[in-house]
Every structure is written in structure tokens, then in C-alpha cells.
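G., before I forget:
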Amino acid sequence: MYRSVFKPGLFKDQLTIVTGGGSGIGRCTAHELAALGATVALVGRDPDKLARVREEIAAVGGVAQAWPCNIRDEAAVQALVAAIVAEHGRIDGLVNNAGGQFPAPLKDISLKGWEAVLQTNLTGGFLMARECLNQAMQARGGAVVNIVADMWGGMPNMGHSGAARAGMVNFTETAAFEWAQYGVRVNAVAPGYVASSGMDAYPPSMKQTIQAFPQTVPLKRFGTEAEISAAIVFLLSEAAAFITGTTLRVDGGRPNVRPGMPMPALRNPSVPFDGFHLAQTPKVLGGD
Ligand code: ADE
């Protein structure tokens, strides 16, 4: 069972949707929410991945369901949310985590590639949130957490993703204002460099760059999937009842590094939190 720092039963009787729930941070968050009593609706494009995570969660006594869906498809998102509401009568939480991009400098990104990344990382999140609001949360409240990225100051070789994530931060702020009247809180989590299966999408030529990332972080290490999940769970929970419109950075202080300012050596290394006994080390960091 997932070792969460939050109290057992925190999400009892609640239905939470996690997009991109078939792998990485989404999978980890689904495990944590299920361990805390939520029923988790796993959304993603790959039915096999979703089924595997559903089985993993069932094997440790949790409840999850697989809901394959392409979040770029407006009609499919509308039908998905309608089906979840028809079955459960409620949606308490939405974790807008599905994402995807490919490394490329701006000058080489085609219109098709640009639009694909914007659709997945910005438009898809908007569609999921809008439908959850209109079909469920408007009536009884809820919480949305949008997963973005550490894109402050630009995102070299990921300009499409950086633009989409920055857009999602602004969407978070507008939705927080417009939806507060319904008792719906909208926040974002911005992970920094996290040792997650998503890293394996980078080409082998970037291996050395990726392995050097921790040297650019004041806490001098990668984050764990569980450290991102904990922030998401906090923002979904009643502990965050007065928090809306914020973006919580979970990045070991990376954006606080200043050019020319030497980075002090670590005297007391921070201990990574890994409540997720099923975490996979990405191949680029030596996993199999
Ligand atoms: N994960 C990555 N891209 C996705 C998409 N278009 N729909 C659902 N999950 C996704």
C-alpha cells in the first residue's frame, strides 16, 4: 500500500479523475489518492496502461477505473465526463496531468508539432476542467489541480511545452476567479526535474544533460514522483480549502539559482520522499 503522509480516509467517498494516469506522476498520484480512500478514474489514451494501473491499485485494496479517452477531442471529453457523472453522480477532484512533448529548438518545430503539443498540454486540460465544472462541480464544488512545468525564464528545446504550460498557469488563475462562486478551487503544481518514466521520452543524445540536471538545483537531486503527488494531494484536500489560483513549485529551488552566484555545496542532503513502492527508475538514470 502507498505510504502517504496524509491521513487514511482523507478522500473517502470521493471521485477523482487523474488524466495521464497510466504512467509516471499520474500513476503515482492515482495510487496515493486510492490509498487515501478515493475512487480514481484513470484517463489516458492507452487502455492497456490504464488497465495495468487499475490492477495494481486493486491488488493493494484500492478502487480505480480505466476510462480511455483522447483529451484533445472535445466530443470525447464531453462523453467521458457525462459517463463518469452518470455512474458516480459526482466529481470531487480533477488532476489535469496528461501531457506530452518532444525536444526540438523553436526553429525546427512545425505547425503540426506545435499545435499537437498545445492541444495536449493546454487545450485538453481546458476541456477536461470545463466539462467537470459544467457537468458536476458547478452543482456541489470541487478542486482542480493542473500539472504544469518549471518553465519560468523559458524552456529551451521545449518551447511549445513551455508556452502551453505558461498558458495553463494563466488559465488556472482565471478559472480560480470565475469558479470560486461555485466552491471550485483551481490550482497548479509545477514539477522541476523529477525522476519519472517521462524522462525516457528524451533521446539518448540528451542522457549526459539529464544526468547533470541535479547540479543546477539547490537541493542537488531529482525530485521523486511521490513528492509531486504529495503536493497534488495537498491541493485537492481540505487542508488547502482557502488556496485557489496558485501555482505550487516543487522543484528543489531550481528557479532561484542566479547566474554568476556560486551554488553552495550541500552540507545536509535532503532525504527524498518516496511513498511509492512501485516507482520506476527511468532508464536514462540507470533503471531497466
Ligand atoms: N496523454 C498524453 N496525451 C494524451 C491525450 N491526447 N489524451 C489523453 N491522455 C493523454
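The mean pLDDT is 95. The two ends are 23 Å apart (CA to CA).

More on Monday.
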